[in-house]
Amino acid sequence: MSSRQTTRAAEPPLRGCVVIDLSSGIAGGYCTRMLRDGGARVIKVEAPEGDSLRSWSASGAVIESGCDGALFGFLAGGKESVLADPDRTEDLDLVDTLLDSADVVVWSRGSRLTEHPRLSVSAIRRAHRHLVVTAITPFGLEGPWSDRAATEFTLQAWSGGIVGLGRGAPEQAPVYIGGRVGEWFAGAYASAATMTSRLRTLGSGTGELVDLSVLETQILGLTYFPVSFYEALDRPFRTQRRLSVPGVASAADGMVALGCGTSQQWFDLCAMVGHPEWIDEDTDLSITERAGKNAPEIFAWLAEQPTEVIRDLASAFRIPNGPVVNGANATAMDHHLARESFTVNPRDGFAQPRPPYRPDPNWLSEPLPAPRLGEHTARYRAARPERHDTRPAAALNPLPFQELRVLDLTTYWAGPCCTHYLAMLGAEVIHVESASRPDGTRLIAGVPATQEQWWEYSPIFSGLNTNKKSITLDFRSERGRELLSRLAATCDVIVENYTPRVLDQIGLDYPAVQRLRPDTIMVRMPGFGLDGPWRDNPAFAYVIEDTSGLTWLTGHPDRNPLEPYSIGDPNAGVHALNALLLALEHRRRTGNGMLIEAAMVDAALNVAAEQVIEHSAYGALLQRDGNRGPEAAPQNLYKASGTDEFGNQDCWIALAVTTDDQWRSLTKALGDPLWARSPDLSTATGRRREHDTIDTHLTEWCAARDSDEIVRILWDAGVPVAKVMQPHRQPEIPQLTTRDFFEPVPHPIAHTARHSTIPIRFSAGPDRYHRTPAPLLGQHTTEVLAALGLTAAEIDELESEGIIGGSPAVIRTPVKND
């Protein structure tokens, strides 16, 4: 596939689907942007003051009257705008008429429209039973926390994501992931959930409620199955914060990012920096501990080398590496230039990323301008849309993908989380491994190789692969490749996230798949795409974060940025899922399959879009600022009294004040102290200017109280606040219990452990997502091969030749976590 789109054109999959956008903010805006990219007609209904993003700039740029903020211009591209005053009955009647004619409504709090009783979720559901209603809220629509105040920042704290993977130096406060990445990630999940619901409600006359919790999306995107890990292995994934080594390091002429995700990469780094004596295959130390022990020498060597030399050497050693991208340099990166990853906003001329996937045949249109406030109101008043075709309500299948067969050629996190969503909603997913090279997540447990079947104990593998089948097949052999092709011919969908050259080498690229079965959908998830200068570079999550800008906004301002070390993988997975759902709709309409390229870096560039947009539109380079952010003032982490479960004085609370009313509530909860009465603090501008002073007083107040007391006092006052949770303590959150977010999953070898589900509650079900445990290595090989027509004798022969097998052919030291 070329760096741009192929010349073949097709009708957009969602053409004819009408979406009413009653949301405000990034999550709803990105959800409806993705639906619009898929061809839906999106009618954004706004109160007279307009969406808050119309006047938003993260850098504080002044938005002139009659103009819109650049971020709004990106998110609202191609939508229509209808103005409706909730104080006018005739305007509410117009909204009702629009809802009557629509297929989907996307709803969130935060505007006067959705606060009106006629436009509550329950009222919309009663009056418009045919609609898919997607509600995006911090905690979900029901439960003990459903009405609690929250922001992106406090939700990251509740999720455990702020300390989940040990991000940051122990002598400093932990740090959140900058750029409101959680809201973008929630928007992508909302889009996928909306398309899932539409798929099963089409033609039924029955709508559905899609209830998305942003907290739950953050648990899935910012933490790495910590509850499953803790309960299966009786220990947390990590007990203290450590800097990644090398991570983002200072070179002689700038910054460079390097990472070691495997033991082999650590060995190669030792050789690269001239210290092969550090290689010790028998050590009990984790990779992080080994690297940390030698950090001074590693950083000293890097500081003497130019970035280009470091990257060339690292690439030669196959060590994951990349430049540290930000809003100023992203569009000039040779890879992004070669792939034309950015385009020009058609109305305002700033740079913006292209959609996060590349379909063939191509149904993506060139960017369209965002509407001015109320631009399409007169048209809809004059010609009221027809009422939606109403049909007798029909029962909905709680497992909408039940007829789908998926060939899962994925490994680690990004690919498996895409196919896992399908498996949890009914698809037959056949996960292909080989005995000599099992899925890498099977090795993430720290279980000694002396323990029988040690490769079956990984909670990470288990958390990503319930309901799937596992077969082993060594497709380095001609016989293995032939069997893989035969299996592919029986599958509706193929998803793979190998390096691009692998499928070419085994003869299973898309043209070969089309010859086997023309209606097959193939989703390819390379790290950097199928072409371009970085095509063959190793692409672990942290490198994707580095090369997209996600790393740049994370960390304290007095140090190099910190890699989030999490979001790069699941973000790629949910974007690939969106692409796959669009491809399924294309096949439903045309009967044809298609190829989708869903590069990890393209997904990351989209959720980091604000950096490029702000720099291009306003000349402002957004900077990391510790735990402060542009949306709230004050916003920070404050240390509470007491020690954590590991005996450290490391208990923190997150606080974010987004409105003047919340500030007044905060000061009242603090006892109306004299320092807080200053008129300079009555506005957000003044509070931002005096942030250091406010921090001093809040630090003193919090230090005298424990986390629970602080949260109780401030939350009861309506102030967004949160404990910085240890991630394995997520089940202690009552809201998650109410929504059954965790389900206990028994395992034939490992301990029973609770597994996270998905961040949506569909009104049509299912009631349970994990129906069978993750498969043992090769558990279903005989079953699947027998269904292809192989005899027992042929299967025995394959095992004797090592083409299939149920245990690793060569025992390797499992990766030890820290």
UniProtKB/TrEMBL annotation:
Q: Which parts of the chain are coiled coil?
A: none
Ranges for region Disordered: 345-369
Q: What is its EC number?
A: 2.8.3.-
Transmembrane: is it a keyword of this entry? Answer: no
Give the record's keywords alphabetically.
Transferase
Question: A single Pfam family, by name?
Answer: CoA_transf_3
Q: Keyword Transferase, does the record have it?
A: yes
Q: Which domain of life is it from?
A: Bacteria
Q: What class of enzyme is it?
A: transferase
InterPro entries named among the record's database cross-references: CoA-transferase_III_domain, CoA-Trfase_fam_III, CoA-Trfase_III_dom3_sf, CoA-Trfase_III_dom_1_sf
Q: Which SUPFAM superfamilies match?
A: CoA-transferase family III (CaiB/BaiF) (SSF89796)
GO molecular function ontology, one term from the record: CoA-transferase activity
The name of this protein is Putative CoA-transferase
Q: Which organism is it from?
A: Nocardia macrotermitis
